[in-house]
Amino acid sequence: MNTRETLENYIDEHFQDTLKDIQKIVKIKTVKEESTIGAPFGLGLKKGLEETLKIAKDLGFKTVNLDNYIGYAEFGEGEEYIGVLGHIDVVPEGDHSKWSVPPYSGDIVGKNMISRGALDNKGPIISALHSMKALKECVPSFNHRVRIIFGTNEESGDEDIKYYLSKEKAPKYAFTPDGQFPVVFSEKGIYTFSFKDTFTKENSSILDIVGGTRSNVVPEEAKVFLKKDLFEKVLKELEKFKDTPCKIEVLEKENCLEVTCKGVPAHASSPQRGINPITWLFRFLNKVISERDSLKRFVNFMDSVVGVETDGSGLDIKTKNEETGDLTLSCGIVKTTQEKKSLSIYVKFNIRYPVTTNEKQLDATLSKVGGENNIEFVKENHNAPLYFPTEHPLVEKLQKVFKEITDRDDKPVALGGGTYAKLMPNTVAFGPNFKEFKGNPHGFDEKMDLDMLKQGMLMYALGVLELV
C-alpha cells in the first residue's frame, strides 16, 4: 500500500476512537467565563484544555500547557515545526429548547454530530490530533516536528495566541481547520465598535433594553421594558409588524411592559443568514415612543441611519469586492447602565470588511456619522484582513492535497470569518467542511458531517507531509 492508502485505512479503523474523544470534549461547556486564579478564561475552559491535553498524552504525544491560556501536543524533532491549530472555546448555546438534542451531548444523528463545538471547532481540532497520530504511526520515517495547538480564546479576543507568541516561536507553516476547504487565501478584516449615549430617565418611556452577549453572533432575541402607558400604542404597532421577518411578543407585567423581539441567530461573518432582533427592535421602538422621549434621538438613529440592513449602507460604509467578498455589518449587543437619574445605552457592532477597505477609512466614516447625529462613536477592536496570493507555497501545497483527495476543482476561497490565521504567522485556514455544507456554527443544532470529518483527517495528514 502507498502512504495515502495506509493513512486512509488507519483513520478508518480508529475513527470510532476519534468520535469518542470529540464527544468527551464537546460535553464540557467551554464558554468564556470570569477569570480566576489559574483559569484566565474561566474554569470550564481550564477543564476543557486539561482534558484535551490528557487525550493527546494518552495518544503518545508530548504535551505542554501554557498557564491555561493555550496548550499543545507535539512529536518529531527539529528547530522548525509545522503547526495545526484550532480552538476549544465556544459561543453560548442559547435556548436549549431550540436544539433537537441537548447542546453539549455530542449526539450523532444520521451522519452528523450535533453539538455546540462539533464544527466550531472542537470536532475538527480533535480529529486533526488523531490525524497526526495516524501520521506518526503510519509513516515511521517521518520525524519532522509537528505541533497541534489548542487555543481557548478564539471566540472572544485571541488573547491565547498573543500569549503563545510571547512564549513560543511561530511555525514554519501552519493551518487551522476552522474555515472551509479547499484553502482560505483571504479573510476579511474584523472591526468592532459601539455607539453610546446617555439620557434622563424622567423623560423616557424606556426603562431598560437588553440583547446579545457577543459581538460576533447575531443574537436570538432582544428585549425592551416600557412604561405601561404605552400599552395601546404597542398593541397597535404590533399588528403592523406581523409581516416583518422578526417575531415580536408583548407581556404585560405588574410594573412594565416586556416587549421581546425574536430573531434568528447567525455568525457575524454572515449576518444576512440570520434575522437581527436588536435592529428590528429599534425599528419597532421608533414607531412606539413619542418624539418627546429623551431616547428618541438614539432610537431614531438606530432605525433610520443604522437600519436593519447588513451591508453597512446606512452608515455609508458599504463596500463590494468580487475577489474577497463584500463588507458586512452585524449588531451583536445592546445593554444599558442605570444611574439614579440617567440611563446610558450601548450598542456594539461587528464589521467584516474586504481588502479594498481599510481601518482608517472606517475610523473616519463612522466617527463622522456619529458626530453628525450627536451619538458617541467608540472604536473597540480591529484585526486587519489576511491575504495570501493564490500562488503562495502554503496555498498551492494544500490546494494540491485537496485536489488529489477529492478530485474537485474548487478554487481557494475568501471568507468573512476570522480565524487564528490572522494572528499566527505563516498560517491559513484549511477545512473542515466543503462550501455546500451548512453546519450552522454559532446557531442552533450546530453540526459536523462525519464523512467530511474523516476525509478532512486524511487531508490534514497529507497536508503536513506536503508542507515539510
TrEMBL record:
Keywords of the record: Dipeptidase, Hydrolase, Metal-binding, Metalloprotease, Protease, Zinc
A Pfam family annotated for this UniProt entry: M20_dimer
GO biological process, one term: L-arginine biosynthetic process
Metal-binding found in the keyword field: yes
Cofactor(s) named in the record: Zn(2+)
Domain Peptidase M20 dimerisation: 258-362
Family to which this protein belongs: Belongs to the peptidase M20A family.
Protein name: Peptidase M20 dimerisation domain-containing protein
Organism: Cetobacterium somerae ATCC BAA-474
